[in-house]
Amino acid sequence: MAALTDLTLAAARDGLKKKSFSAKEIAEAHIKAVEGARALNAFITETPDKALAMAAQSDARIAKGEARPLDGIPLAIKDLFCTEGVLTTAASHILDGYKPQYESTVTSNLWRDGAVMVGKTNLDEFAMGSSNMTSYYGPVESPWRRQGDNRPLVPGGSSGGSAAAIAARLALGATGTDTGGSIRQPASFCGIVGLKPTYGRCSRWGIVAFASSLDQAGPFARDVRDTAILMRAMAGHDPKDSTSVDMEVPDFEATLDKGVKGLKIGIPKEYRVDGMPAEIEKLWNQGIEWLRAEGAEIREISLPHTKYALATYYIVAPAEASSNLARYDGVRFGLRVNGDSLDDMYERTRAAGFGAEVRRRVMIGAYVLSAGYYDAYYLKAQKVRALIARDFEQAFGQVDAILTPTAPSAAFAIGDKMDDPIAMYLNDVFTVPASLAGLPALSLPAGLSGDGLPLGLHLIGRAFDEATVLRAARTIEKAANFTARPGAAS
Q1: 464 φ/ψ sector (left φ>0, alpha ψ -120 to 50, else beta)
Q2: Given 158, 162, 188, 203, which residue is catalytic?
Q3: Is 182 a catalytic residue?
Q4: pTM score
Q5: pLDDT tens digits for 140-199?
Q6: Is-catalytic flag, 158?
């Protein structure tokens, strides 16, 4: 059975259709793997009974010759997606016991295509973090370890549970959400592929909100083809989400191997930041050479407002979070801590229910939206955001995709940087600009650090041109031939 957890999603899909094994067998193999890797704390809620029931339905359809695109494929779902009748916590104490009576659109799309849920994955509380250490349910451990150092490492955040689950072979694919890098940075740290689609490509309906103008659902997988397969299933117009775009979803898998010959790839000079580790710079240069060797034209470009992106993000995102999280008041659902008055109950519930990082961001957001500071901070940040988007628009007049590093370092040890929020926020320095502009961006593993940890390369594309991003990623994937595996998957 162990071999079933080593299959790619595409290989498992093809094997199921050929009846080389059953959906029940592949579900059981992954349920066993999840149970054997609980030390990683990648899951908040395991759903073995649901997985077996869904697998039985897949087997019945396959037997009738009515297989759906993802029939029998075991997936892990970030615990930010509402799942009907299944505990949904956003990794926060304030949502204790919350079982939605409805299903998010993205997960509905996956179940429509026959996928199987093995569980709900851990994350930074309300998706606020870059390490998966702010969860009420405790930190997630990466299955990776540094050579000669057995200290547990962070998987990245906020979607760290999903990324760790894929790297540890606990599911064949997973969902994540990305607000400022929360799919791409964990993908880089865990040596897997993660795609943030264009804002509006995947419905946000039924996803617990952090920052509504930035949040976007996307897939994790172990290779680019599997990511393309999941992307097609997850995407699509949703009338329940006013920001969802009514646009045809291409068959991303069909165009993967078109190569990059004739494509123009931009290299932004502003991303060569002071103090960038030599191994990150070396990998970036290697990525440039791989694309050039396959016929791409490399062009230096300028994104002059990049230096303001992180500051802009940490005004806009907390402002939206402070508004979105106002609904958690102890009245309608989740945790309630009784008080002497209604106001006292609100205060006690929110103080007990929210962790330190969430409280920090809510307070920052309330401050920048307050009278006297709105113009100085929030309005100015929105203007800078428009300039950042314009930089990308001008760059895409010259190039078809942009290549950068994903993160400024490999994974760090659990506990590092926790006493320095600014150092933690800097993890998103390369990923935030694409989020502010609403553009598709992907991280894929392309090499190892000096101490044997994965390093990712990052591709950014034009709005709704995930197909070109995936094509370029597939070209790098073939050249990099990244085959390293984590050594501590249990």
Answers
A1: left
A2: 158
A3: yes
A4: 0.96
A5: 999 999 998 999 999 999 999 999 999 999 999 999 999 999 999 999 999 999 999 999
A6: yes
